[in-house]
Write a structure and sequence with these properties.
It is a single chain. The protein has 167 residues and is α+β, with helices and mostly antiparallel strands. It folds into 2 domains: 92 residues, no CATH class; 31 residues. The protein is built from 6 helices and 5 strands; from the N terminus they run βββαβαβαααα. It has a 3-stranded antiparallel sheet, with helices on both faces. The protein has a two-stranded parallel ribbon with strand order 4-5. Strand 1 and strand 2 form a beta hairpin. The relative contact order is 0.12.
Length: 167
């Protein structure tokens, strides 16, 4: 995904699991083998295990880097195989529009890290759940949210509406 920051094009590399949760991402000025290697190494360190299947677009640097890392995973680059990753760009585009663009690659990386954690916590695949199940999951997400915030921000809870002035 291409993101324009201060008039320059940057590539947003994303890793998404089979359920649509964002595992990791990286903002890089180039789309080359070095960037693919950086993302895959970062992802393998964070996850702690090698995947059994990797789905990517048809960019050749992925297959070169998967071979050089010695992964035994099957590499799928077929038609419409990476739709889940492509659809995960939509919340990022919405966030980018709300912020009126990103100001620097570092701020993009930081704000998207927070956005991904929030999105993964509160996004439930509603079409697969009954209303009662979805309500239970949403309540659990709201209750778990304060434990994920830094210690200083515990006063802000998504359910607390007393910070909105009523008049």
């Amino acid at each position: 995904m291409v993101v324009t920051i201060n008039g320059k094009r940057y590539w947003l590399w994303r890793a998404v699991d089979n359920e649509g949760e964002v595992l990791d991402f990286l903002v890089q000025p180039e789309r080359n083998t070095k960037s693919a290697k950086k993302l895959l190494n970062k992802l393998l360190k964070r996850q702690g295990f090698a995947p059994t299947k990797v789905v990517t677009d048809k960019f050749r640097s992925y297959s070169a880097e998967i071979r050089s890392l010695g992964l035994k995973a099957t590499h799928d680059r077929g038609l419409r195989a990476n739709n889940r990753a492509e659809n995960s760009h939509q919340p990022v585009r919405r966030r980018e529009r709300k912020q009126q663009g990103f100001k620097s690659p570092g701020s993009a990386q930081r704000s998207l890290a927070v956005h991904a954690a929030t999105y993964n916590t509160f996004n439930h695949q509603r079409h697969l759940l009954s209303r009662a199940s979805c309500k239970v999951l949403r309540t659990g997400s709201y209750d778990a949210w304060p434990s994920r915030l830094p210690r200083t921000d515990l006063s802000v809870h998504p359910r607390s509406y007393d910070h909105f002035p009523l008049s």
